[in-house]
Amino acid sequence: MMKNSFLTVLLLLCLSGCGLNPGQLELLQPPEEESDSLFNLKLFTGKELRFSGLIGLKTTDNGLHCLLLDASGIKLLEGSLDSSGQWKTTFVLAPFEQSGLVSFLALSLRRTYLHFPAEIPCSRSLLNRFCIYQEEQWQKVEQSGVVTVWQARYQKRPRPFLLQSAEFHHHLFDLTLSLKKI
User: Fold this and answer.
1) What is the 8-class DSSP label of residue 90?
2) What pLDDT, in 10s, does the model give residues 55-72?
C-alpha cells in the first residue's frame, strides 16, 4: 500500500513538471515571413576575442543562407545550412578552409536557429537532456548528466523568430559565438 502511494505521488510530480508553458507555443508557429538579418559576430575562446566580423543570415524554406564578412566588408565565407544540419559551402577564402571556423559556425548556427527538442519543452535520451525555456530570456540547453554541453540564449523582439541577439556557448570547449543585430 505504501509503495503504491509513493509511486502514485512520484508519477504525479513527474507529469506535472512536463506541461507546456503557454508562452512556448510561439515556438511551434512558423516564421511570419522570410527575413534577412545582418549581425555583428564575435567568436571567443574563453574571454579572449578570436574573431570579429559581420554575418548576413537569410531564412529559407530549408534552413539558413549565410554570408560571413570581415570588419572591412571582405567576403570570407558563403554557404547554406539545411534543417538537418548539413553545410554546403558556396565560397570560402583559402585561409578559412582548414581553420575549423566553418564547422564551428555551422554547428553553432544549426543549434541556435534550427535545432529544437523533439518534445517541447524538454526531450531526453539516456543521460542527455535537451530543453528550451524562458526565464529572463529564451534559452536552449543540452546537458549530459549534470554537465552542460552547450547553451544558446536569445534576446527577441516581440514578433517570433526576429532575434535581436543570440549567444551560443559550447561549454566543453569554452567557445562562444555572439550575434547582435545591426
Assistant:
1) E
2) 999 888 888 899 999 988
